[in-house]
Amino acid sequence: MWLDSIDRQGEYAIFRTCDEEGFHCDQTENSWGFGDFTGATELGEHGERLAKFWTPQNATDDWHGHPVKKDSGRPNANLPGKELILRWISGNFVSKEFGLKLLRGDV
Hints:
By secondary structure, the protein is an alpha+beta fold. It has one domain. Helix content is 30%, strand content 13%. It contains 3 helices and 3 strands, in the order H-E-E-E-H-H. Helix 2 runs antiparallel to helix 3. The longest helix is centred in the N-terminal third of the chain and has 14 residues. The mean pLDDT is 89.
């Protein structure tokens, strides 16, 4: 669940950045977003710092997303692919420290 402080406009702003910047993973086509450069902004009720927006099943369906957290049973299930994380770091979308945490699965 999104934090109460992240209203529909805030959620849309994160999604819009994902869409405009092409923050999609090639293998899933899902979009991934974050609250800020350093990863300090919590998006979800359990301290989540990433949001995942699933690709709609049908072209007429709306995009849907929510904050995601590390899944100890499936360590990479709630993380974007390595290529996207490296693009975030090299494009200066996220700090190197935050990006390395993502690569290690520490977020």
